[in-house]
Task: inverse folding
């Protein structure tokens, strides 16, 4: 894993949260995107070399809706850049980690993504991200 790509934060109201984070970070949202496969709307902010991703559910059955129901708003995941997501997924499997995806899938911000089950990472949901070329 190369570096932190972004920190994902689950929110109930994307527009209100964008206003809040614009004030907090002193910068505007640079991109909003819907990821239908995950049932989520996203908004991205840059802060220095890192990004913050706000995630709001678009349907009650989405992973974000379930997260909000159980835990409320807050940090949902930490994402790391990888050069080759397939190689990194296999490395993690060999190390005994459980992956939530058998194969990478399309995520927001032009990425291929895969999640590592939080039961094996001390309760932290980890996302692998590879830029789509």
Result:
């Amino acid at each position: 894993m190369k570096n932190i790509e972004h920190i994902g934060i689950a929110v109930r109201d994307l527009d209100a949260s964008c206003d809040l984070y614009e004030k907090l970070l002193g910068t505007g949202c640079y991109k909003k995107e819907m990821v239908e496969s995950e049932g989520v709307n996203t908004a991205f902010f840059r802060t220095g070399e890192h990004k913050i991703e706000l995630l709001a559910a678009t349907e009650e059955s989405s992973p974000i809706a379930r997260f909000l129901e159980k835990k409320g708003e807050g940090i949902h995941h930490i994402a790391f850049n990888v050069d080759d997501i397939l190689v990194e997924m296999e490395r993690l499997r060999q190390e005994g980690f459980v992956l939530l995806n058998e194969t990478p899938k399309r995520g927001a911000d032009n990425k291929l993504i895969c999640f590592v089950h939080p039961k094996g990472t001390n309760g932290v949901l980890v996302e692998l991200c590879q830029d789509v070329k």
